[in-house]
Every structure is written in structure tokens, then in C-alpha cells.
Design goal:
This is SrtB family sortase. 28% of the residues lie in helices and 24% in strands.
Length: 257
């Protein structure tokens, strides 16, 4: 019995050690990739500062129609991983990550943004979404990690204060930028099809929107209709077996496709 206990203890220590190692590697990886993503913005901000002798140029309105084109902020990111399709940030939280998209919804559950095995996985988009095409429901997944990384802060929307004061999501893609406002947050199980991407009609989509809004833990004055595009964020929850915590947001501002 002593030998069995020692083996179990050793196995547990190895598992914990591996988890901590993955956590350290994960934080290092994403800290480095944030520098890659945000550095062009810092450089642009510095280079755009007017010289003392120069008048400040006023921006001129453009009447040219928007065309689908690549978002240059992602140039270096897609060179390191062609599966990177966007970047998600929620101000006031630790959610600030690249978004990948695989050929299925399995690979990035256990692989990081560099395609290396890691228990924390990646923040990733549903493989059925088309980042450059028509979507009614963009779906993004992430783990609820105990070290408070990835989508751990999503569960914080159980709090009404967070729901009201951290309601804006920035989700930029390789084709443009987007701002979204949260209108629903709730706990559910996997039997509820909140990750639906195809709707037979406007009426079916409208009924879906009404259902997810009614499920919300908190009331929202944000109105949604079948004309809207929504963003669905999903993570695991410890509330009960197979529980999921879900946040829905409506697109309110977009530049590009």
C-alpha cells in the first residue's frame, strides 16, 4: 500500500509540474506575441507626432467605398502561424489574445498559438465561421485556466458590475476591426446549441437571439434583431458537469470586412 501511495503521489507531482510548466510557457509565449502585435501601433504613434514647426494636419473625409483588404497589423503574426485570423481584447480583463482557427474545433484545445502542445491551448474561432465572409454568429472558444489566463476572466461576467462596466469587446480580424457590446451572459450545458452558425431564415435567427437574451443572468437594454451580427464567447464552467459559461455581444462598429 505504501508503494502504491508513493506511485500515486509521484504521478500527481509529475502532472502538477507539467501543468505549471505549461502555464509558464503559455504566459511567456503570449507576452512575446503581444509585443509583435502592438509594436507597429507604438511605432506609428511615435512617427505620427507632429514636429514643433509643423501644422497639425486635419483628416479629410473619404467617400471611397470600403474594400476587403488584409489588415497589415497581422502581417508578422500570420507569418508565424497562418491559422491566426484575429485578435480579441476586453478592456479591464486579462483577455488580450490572438485568435486562431483550425480545420476542426479540437486541435487548438491543446495547442498554443505556435501550434505546440500546451494544456492551455489557444483562443480559437469555430472552424465553421468564415472570417472574410458572411457570418451571423462568430464563435470563439477558450479554456477557463486556474492561473487566470485565456478565458478565465469570462466567468467574471456572472457579476452584474462586470456585465455593465466591462461591456465592450474589441475583436479585430485579418480583414478589419470591430467593436462589440455585450448583451447576454449565462451558464448553460452543452445540450443548448448556442454555437449555431447556420439559420434557415431571419425568423429562426431572431428566435435564437431572443432565447440567448432571455437566458442572460442580467438585464440588458441592448436591442438585437435578425439584421445584427453577434459574437459568442464560450468557456468551461465548474458550476456543474458539462457546464459552459457563455457571453454574447452585438457588433456596433466595424471598419473593413
Amino acid at each position: 500500500m505504501f508503494a502504491v501511495g508513493a506511485i500515486v503521489l509521484l504521478f500527481s507531482m509529475v502532472k502538477v509540474g507539467a501543468y505549471l510548466q505549461d502555464g509558464y510557457k503559455n504566459r511567456k509565449t503570449y507576452a512575446e506575441i503581444r509585443n509583435v502585435y502592438y509594436e507597429p501601433v507604438r511605432v506609428q504613434q511615435l512617427s505620427s507626432l507632429p514636429k514643433p514647426s509643423e501644422p497639425i494636419a486635419q483628416p479629410q473625409p473619404s467617400t471611397a467605398p470600403l474594400e476587403k483588404k488584409f489588415n497589415v497589423r497581422f502581417t508578422d503574426l500570420v507569418k508565424r502561424n497562418e491559422d491566426i485570423v484575429g485578435w480579441i481584447t476586453i478592456e479591464g480583463t486579462r483577455i488580450d489574445y490572438p485568435v486562431t482557427q483550425g480545420e476542426d474545433n479540437e486541435f487548438y484545445l491543446e495547442h498554443d498559438v505556435n501550434k505546440e502542445e500546451n494544456v492551455a491551448g489557444s483562443i480559437f474561432m469555430d472552424y465553421r465561421n468564415n472570417v472574410g465572409g458572411f457570418n451571423r454568429n462568430f464563435i470563439i472558444y477558450g479554456h477557463d485556466m486556474k492561473n487566470k489566463t485565456m478565458f478565465a476572466d469570462l466567468v467574471g461576467y456572472e457579476s452584474r458590475w462586470n456585465f455593465e462596466n466591462k461591456a465592450t469587446i474589441e475583436f479585430d480580424t485579418i480583414y478589419g476591426t470591430g467593436k462589440w457590446i455585450i448583451f447576454s451572459a449565462y451558464t448553460t450545458d452543452s445540450s443548448f446549441d448556442y454555437i449555431k452558425t447556420d439559420f434557415a431564415s431571419d425568423e429562426e435567427y431572431g428566435a435564437f437571439l431572443n432565447e440567448v437574451k432571455e437566458k442572460s443572468l442580467h438585464h440588458s437594454d441592448v436591442e438585437v434583431s435578425s439584421k445584427d451580427t453577434i459574437l459568442t464567447l464560450s468557456t468551461c464552467s465548474s458550476a456543474f458537469e458539462n457546464a459552459r459559461f457563455v457571453v454574447h455581444a452585438k457588433l456596433i462598429d466595424q471598419n473593413g470586412d
